[in-house]
Amino acid sequence: MGCGQHEETILSSARIGKTLQAARGRRGWSREALAYHAGVSASAIAQIESGRRREVRLSSLAALAGALSVSVDYLIGSDAAVGSSVFEHLVLRYSSDEEFLAATVPFLAQGVERSEAVLAVTTHANIELLRDALNGGDEDVAFAESIDWCSSPNEAMHRYRTFVTERFEAGAMWTRIVGEPVWAGRSDAEVTAWTRYESLLNLACASLPATILCPYDARAVPASVVADAHRTHPAVVRGTGITANAEYWKPEDFLLEAHTAA
Length: 262
Prior knowledge:
single chain; alpha/beta; 434 Repressor (Amino-terminal Domain); Rossmann fold; 2 domains; 12 helices
């Protein structure tokens, strides 16, 4: 090896192709679009995704990961807990069954289509609405009632993390969840705890390969709770559109403010 030369690190994993394709699919990009953003040829991307190339230069992986806003660790499937944040936390304010379904049905159906792990945690009534609207596509969706799942903030967080981790280890490249907390009948202290939980999710789940969409029923949830929801979720869903949330507060800012106010 001559002076000034070095041998670049090569990473190998049987999962690179699947995780790369899943991350690209969530972006809605073609291989050509990813090639443009990452500076890696479309033919190389095709070889990686097809499994013909399982050994990839670290520089190429870093470029692909950077373009897709995921970590290199996620792409190689080594340890999703290491690396940059990949977790997506979305809020949906809805005022009718139609608004609820317009956002949640495409969200869940797309997950099933992409062979992602899919979970819906919501009210019994909304579960029935989803089953009917999915029209047979609910067989690949796991359902749980919020009243059972959300016994406490700690328990809910543990269950979400366990679900995502187990599905990832079983081969699911991504998990998408509709997660609707229970607000009815909560005391002021409980409302505060659950609001802080929504903010903490952004930290506790930061490295999990998952998207959680949190619906808030404006017909039943207090306006103050809905307002706080827009401070604890980085992105807002309206129909099938997702936009960055200008009202979002970083957890350290939100939790400090909440603690001071308490």
